[in-house]
Amino acid sequence: MKYLFICKPVVLVAVLLPFIMSCKKKLEQSPPNNTTSTNIHNVGTGWPYATLAAAAAVAKPGDTIQINNGTYSGGDNITNLQGTSSAWITIRAAKGATVLYSGNTQAFQLSDPAYLRIQGLQFEKQSANGVNIDDAGTFDTPAHDIIIENCEWLDIGGTGNNDLLKLSGVDNFTVQNCRFNNGANGAFIDMVGCHNGVLQDNICKNVGPGGQAFQTKGGSKNIIVQRNRIINGGDRAMHIGGNTGTQYFRPQGANYEAMNIYVYSNTFEGSTAPIVFASAVSCEVVNNTIIQPVKYAVRILQDNNMTQKCANNTFRNNIVVFPNTGSAAINIGVGTDANSFVFSNNLWFNPDNLSWSGPTTSYVEPGQILNKDPQFSDAFYHLQSTSPAIGKGYSALKPTTDYFSLAFKSPRSIGAVEAN
């Protein structure tokens, strides 16, 4: 990696790293304290309930379903597991326990859940999707108010379009502080017709060659993707949009695959194309660090000809290290309105060709920095004090915080990590 300069001793980095990581926000959306039932329903061998489904059948608002140490075959189908706005239901691993759902078609499927938190579970080797959460096909009554945190997907058993976490018709949700590993040709998180969500502080490694880390499609809207680290992100690491059958759109009649998707302060390493706008409208990719895309840094596509044109999207304040192995920094497909896109204040660096003429856009990009080494000081993309990215970002209102949840300065730096 010619562009990566390690200027701090390894010992110092090891000492500082726990402190740095402790700065990351652990929770930005929390349910209120439970005010009704506080029963704990224990699941596992030798406990009152053998399966999650059995405990869910008796759970009431405010209850906790506690899963004890062990490996579970899963396959549960659970409908209408619903807390209330003041009394959420929690599904969690017992303190100190390793709870692994291994094999089966899926670990579990939750249909029409509400006010539900899921904590501390592990998943592996499911043959379809790892975990399914959906609206039971009732588009006018979505699943809603779901928090998934501190969970880990070790891999997926299927080899096709299999997702680790499938969300269909889910509103007001957060997925945070989770780890996703070793995908197939599906997505780590696939969102169909989902709204008002946050994906934050997750680590994703080794998406399958034809897969995606995150995909928002089928009428998805108002989703923030922030402070995630994506390593080897497959074919389309951040897939904004897609090509969804009209019968799956939520709401029905939506004429966009994705709208108001905000991709902020993430790091992307690898992937055929880290950022893909596909039949997407009014979405933003701001203050990210993108390293070694294999073929494209950005793709602008009209995958679904039944929706309005891919248009009015923004790519700003991003560092892109694009090696000579790539074919084009920006790929523009037919049927799109690429001229309506905003490109500004991006740093483009080709470490293999310092005379590279840069990406092709329809106009001269304002604030562009071309072929200057961003001068990273470590593997987390902190900037050296002499970096040309410092203070050169467009004064955007959002994101307000960088990858480490530290405030951007004014003027802000380019990339996912503010200079500190």
Q: Cα-atom Rg, whole angstroms?
A: 22 Å
Number of strands: 35
Report the mean per-residue pLDDT as an integer.
92
Number of helices, where a helix is a run of at least 4 consecutive DSSP H or I residues:
2
- Shape descriptor reads globular
Question: Care to describe what's here?
Answer:
The chain has 420 residues and is mainly beta. The chain has a domain at 1-7 and 219-248 and 256-420. It is 4% helix and 35% strand. The protein has helices spanning 10-22, 52-56, and strands at 40-43, 64-67, 70-72, 76-79, 89-93, 99-102, 108-111, 114-119, 122-124, 131-134, 143-149, 152-153, 165-168, 170-176, 179-181, 187-192, 195-200, 203-205, 212-217, 220-226, 229-231, 236-241, 258-264, 267-269, 273-278, 280-281, 284-286, 289-291, 298-301, 314-316, 319-321, 330-332, 342-344, 347-349, 369-370. Strands 1, 2, 5, 8, 11, 14, 17, 20, 23, 26, 27, 30 and 33 form a 13-stranded parallel β-sheet that branches. Mean pLDDT is 92; it is low at 1-35.
Question: What can be said about this structure in brief?
Answer:
By secondary structure, the protein is mainly beta.
